[in-house]
Target: Bifunctional aspartate kinase/homoserine dehydrogenase I
Amino acid sequence: MKVLKFGGTSVGSATNIKKVKEIVLSQNDDVIVVVSALGGITDKILTAANNAATGTSDFHTELTEIRQRHHDTMHELFNGNEPIREVVEKLLDELEQILTGITLVGELTAKTLDRIAGIGERMSSQIIAAFIGAERKDSSLLIQTDSNFGKASVDFQVTIKNIKEEFAGFRGIAVAPGFISKNSKGEFTTLGRGGSDFTAAIIAAALDVEVLEIWTDVNGFMTADPRVIRKAYTIPELTYSEAMELSHFGAKVIYPPTILPVYQKGIPILIKNTFEPENPGTRIVKDVRNGFDRPIKGISSISGITLLTMQGIGMVGVTGISMRLFTALARVNVNVILISQASSENSISVAIEEKMLSKAEQAICEEFEKEIASGQVNKIDIEKEVSVVAIVGENMKKTTGVAGKLFSTIGRNGVNIIAIAQGASELNISWVVKNEDLRKTLNVVHESFFLSEFVELNIFLMGIGTVGGNLLQQLKQQQEKLLKEKHLRVKLTGVANSKKMLFEREGIDISEFRDKLAQAEKTSSLQGFVDEMKDMNIYNSVFVDCTASDNVASVYKEILNANIAIVTANKVAASSDYENYAELKRIAKRKGVKFLFETNVGAGLPIINTLNDLVNSGDRILKIEAVLSGTLNYIFNTISEDIPLSKTILMAKEEGYSEPDPRIDLSGVDVARKILILARESGYRIEMEDISIKRFVPDSLFNGTLDEFWEGVPGLDAAFETERKKLVAENKKWRFVARFENGKAEAGLEVVDASHPFYDLEGSNNLVMYTTERYHEFPMLIKGYGAGASVTAAGVFADLIKVSNI
Ligand SMILES: NC(=O)C1=CN([C@@H]2O[C@H](COP(=O)(O)OP(=O)(O)OC[C@H]3O[C@@H](n4cnc5c(N)ncnc54)[C@H](O)[C@@H]3O)[C@@H](O)[C@H]2O)C=CC1
Ligand SMILES: N[C@@H](CC=O)C(=O)O
Model:
């Protein structure tokens, strides 16, 4: 035999009741069906009763609606031929008479309320029994309680006897109302919140049935609230204790006390979805089967919480403080959701429902009036608008490192934990965060414990020119592969050019981003972009700078401080004042987020990473010799009798090698920035002014505007051609070389012959030679394309992959 309980939504309309019938008739067993009132009816009855008692408004509005709902439902189920219409009509009349009585006396007692609160279940069970063609049983005659109207306690001895007698030898299908009971005098009582679940559990336990099925409107217990976590999924199996914990912390699938009767009998509970009956749902059992025993089963949260902290040195070592605190709260019916006390006993924090704040505060202040006045206890500290989050799982106690993983993941994402509580049973770890951090916390924890096979990276990209634009093409091309093969979901969450900015929490479709950005409402602003990124407060966020802007580089501190990682192709920050560069690295380290700029030197070549590996493994950099400008190398490899210097500069720009302002390349500043960054990454404290740059273009060309530069450059062509011819005759070439040795750096134009390693450096290639303590006689060489859209974008992409830690 089975007991199936259907909640208010499951029986909320004729259509839904038809689904219930299908489910019931598909069972290959004898079935007892326990039903709630039609969804929303109990609330309407309570409102009508209150209105009647207070005279604030006429109860007839609610009553008419209640009547109409039942008439409509019966009409649709029975095609106008309503066999139980008379019974239901009688119950509606009974309701009307009592409501009229309440209006006359102007008073609503708990006893009267219980008399009418269960009329919804009495009507629904009549309708459903008739529709299914089942026998109707009256739970109120079976479940006997005391006379604590509103939340009566069950007399299990009498109740179990009644149920056993009633169902002795029963075969077939029975329908019984949930929620209602009677006292020994035969007066109606009710079983309190979640009462229909309780009715079902009592009957299931009394008859020792095979299974109790709770049919609701969700697919069982989910790993997290699916309204917040899109990727939450159904937990196949839970232990009773885990289900109780999850329910207590907000997963409103069942009402915890209802589990008790079946828990004591070891009867499994199956949570099923009336609207998706093929979904296996969640099984709640004593011991879960192998395969369903991961350390964490689910995450729950409760919002609308206030944290009260009582603190004072006068509390240390004094017995009875906690007892007085909790007694004071209990006196005013304040439920304590979480307790946290440090072993120093200097403070106790309690989390309570926000709406209980004034009652609780008053009760505590009264209880500790003397201690507060004497300064032994400080004033009560109140932290409003917080949420309690909990992870639940019986296997936590067998697994080390859960708390470590939990709090380091949350911390890395910049969420501050206000209080923590973990019982010695290790069934649950709870903590308190600000409401504004709740969504992020749930996402971070859900991803790290349930979706470890999926990592999400939220990209906020600024600058969609040569490099940024190519990066987006590469991301689009790789998105699916990364998801499939690396389980990395790369999302473009925010993007800006110099005109507009666009944000989408669920990710912008990269194939449409240009149109969407063009139509976006928000005008681009640097601070606006940063604020929006911070406000969105999304875990695993990374800011990608593909501009060449000083202003953009100036907001890195703020971004890192908000626990957002940075990947940048822009060299400005890493080559700014040493103190700024060092501070950025310090913040990144402190916040546990990455600050990566591999493409600052040699575009996609692994020049900085290799240097870091050498240094971190204990090597010492003795000398760096390098060709670091793709633009300049391209110019010196392209210049010819037919292609003068001025044209090669234009060509380098068109090829996407030069800086947005090519004077940065021509002046040697770009190379100086790069050797400066390499020197710093080698462990030297060095500033831009320390680098000697030998320019090969007269200073006058850099002093004016960009247009003046373009106008002036052709004036150099003839002199360069003369020099070039001489070099060709001597079989020599120009190379713009950077050197770093003994703490000193320089950059300038050199002439190299065929024996020099730089001589054969083709196109826009770069070459770096590291002479180190280990690579001494034969330096380490890294060579390849040193500029260009695709290689640089690939370098940025590689840094992004590093941020994701896959
Ligand atoms: N092109 C290359 O081969 C390499 C470039 N880089 C670096 O990559 C960065 C980008 O270079 P490119 O893509 O070549 O330059 P680009 O000029 O093609 O693109 C830069 C884009 O940033 C935009 N931008 C500037 N300020 C902005 C702001 N405040 N908000 C939004 N957008 C803004 C510009 O409108 C432009 O579209 C530069 O810092 C460069 O040094 C690094 C290595 C190699
Ligand atoms: N403009 C730079 C681009 C790479 O940093 C260069 O030409 O090398």
About this structure: Residues 607-787 form a domain with the Dihydrodipicolinate Reductase; domain 2 fold (CATH 3.30.360.10). The pocket of LTNE7NMQ (ligand 2) is lined by residues 603, 629-631, 657-659, 665, 670, 786-787 (CB under 6 Å).
